[in-house]
């Protein structure tokens, strides 16, 4: 097959590309330039998509003896990921930019261009497993659960997954680094990037304030309606947040307060006790079925509402084009704007059934 290997400059995409070459595919490497003004150097695990990353990707491609290109996707990334991120926070929601980047950049813009150029598939360094079952793609959790990225890939369609390759799905990260060393890849010990790539200093509140300005509002006790303090904008908070609320007076029972909901129209941030974070129903819009098969009736599943953690046994159904998910376990702090991903509740519990964007909770 003709395979386009997306090479970020990190160890995972480097080993994925190497495995694609070793499997006998006709591989071309591509690095996506996502910033109009990329930094020149990373600082440890801070940031990505820098000039240094592009150079690292090129050196790997040279070692693998494959063609290599840099494609400028900065304008598309700014519009579809960065501006969406800011708009979602301004609307009182908590987006996942990695999910949006996978959906709109790596498996829409990149895959579309790859197909137009005659490639059969796009290869990435994601930790997830992919198989064909009865002619349909089946997206599953990675063998390395600590690195599993099936959650942020669950917004991909069956057509997109049919042209995707995840060579690292059956591997654990420690083995990938050892393999990179054995292959002589200079990125073998390069730190992973943990922060949002376009906020390299990790200060999301500062970034959003610079974009949106101050939007003062009140911190309100959800039970009594009492005003407990003021804040500079709902974009500085997310549902389930405990620290950094700026409330001087303790709760009457002495227990911590948490953000329960955000009201961007009037600027209120409603806070209360942990037990008021419990969720009995999740409503999610824009459902996507990675296998191409929608839910039929009410199904038992495992629901995940955050990229890391936030899982519960649940029942899910498709009603009027929306997902209704009813957790049967203790699920708290579910933030609108995040994805809910449904997994099949078999002993392995690793097959993705579908996903949707959380619009409301009850």
UniProtKB/TrEMBL annotation:
Residues 280-358 form the tRNA-specific 2-thiouridylase MnmA-like C-terminal domain. GO terms for cellular component: cytoplasm. The keyword Zinc-finger does not apply. GO terms for biological process: methylation; tRNA wobble position uridine thiolation. Keywords: ATP-binding, Cytoplasm, Disulfide bond, Methyltransferase, Nucleotide-binding, RNA-binding, Transferase, tRNA processing, tRNA-binding. It is found in: Cytoplasm. The record marks 126, 338 as: Interaction with tRNA. Signal peptide: none annotated. It is an enzyme of class 2 (transferase). The active site is at residues 101, 197. One of its GO terms (molecular function) is tRNA-uridine 2-sulfurtransferase activity. ATP binds at residues 6-13, 32, 125. Pfam families: tRNA_Me_trans, tRNA_Me_trans_C, tRNA_Me_trans_M. The keyword Magnesium does not apply. Residues 147-149 are annotated as: Interaction with tRNA. Its main location: cytoplasm. Belongs to the MnmA/TRMU family. Catalyzes the 2-thiolation of uridine at the wobble position (U34) of tRNA, leading to the formation of s(2)U34. This is tRNA-specific 2-thiouridylase MnmA. The gene is mnmA.
């Amino acid at each position: 097959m003709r395979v386009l290997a997306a090479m970020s400059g990190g160890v995972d995409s480097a080993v994925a590309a190497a495995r694609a070459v070793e499997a006998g595919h006709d591989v071309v490497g591509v690095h996506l330039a996502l910033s109009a003004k990329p930094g020149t150097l990373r600082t440890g695990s801070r940031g990505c998509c820098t000039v240094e990353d592009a150079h690292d990707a090129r050196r790997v491609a040279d070692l693998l003896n494959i063609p290599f290109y840099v494609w400028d996707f900065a304008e598309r990334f700014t519009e579809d990921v960065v501006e969406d991120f800011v708009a979602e926070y301004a609307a009182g929601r908590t987006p996942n930019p990695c999910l949006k980047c996978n959906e709109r950049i790596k498996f829409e813009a990149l895959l579309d261009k790859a197909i137009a150029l005659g490639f059969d598939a796009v290869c990435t360094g994601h930790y997830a497993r992919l198989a064909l079952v009865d002619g349909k793609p089946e997206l599953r959790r990675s063998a390395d659960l600590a690195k599993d990225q099936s959650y942020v890939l669950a917004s991909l369609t069956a057509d997109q997954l049919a042209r995707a390759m995840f060579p690292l799905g059956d591997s654990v990260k420690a083995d990938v680094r050892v393999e990179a060393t054995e292959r002589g890849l200079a990125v073998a010990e390069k730190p992973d990037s943990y922060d949002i790539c376009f906020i390299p200093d990790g200060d999301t509140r500062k970034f959003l304030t610079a974009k949106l300005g101050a939007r003062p509002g009140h911190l309100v006790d959800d039970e009594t309606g009492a005003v407990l303090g003021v804040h500079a904008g709902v974009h500085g908070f997310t549902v389930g947040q405990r620290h950094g609320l700026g409330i001087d007076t303790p709760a009457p029972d002495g227990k911590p307060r948490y953000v329960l909901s955000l009201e961007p129209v009037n600027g209120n941030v409603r806070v209360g006790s942990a037990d008021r974070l419990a969720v009995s129903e999740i409503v999610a819009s824009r459902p996507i079925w990675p296998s191409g098969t929608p839910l039929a009736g009410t199904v038992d599943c495992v629901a995940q509402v955050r990229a890391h953690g936030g899982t519960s046994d649940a029942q899910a159904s498709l009603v009027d084009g929306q997902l209704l998910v009813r957790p049967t376990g203790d699920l708290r702090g579910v933030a609108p704007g995040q994805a809910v991903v449904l997994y099949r509740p078999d002993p392995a519990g690793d097959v993705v059934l579908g996903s949707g964007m959380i619009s409301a909770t009850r």
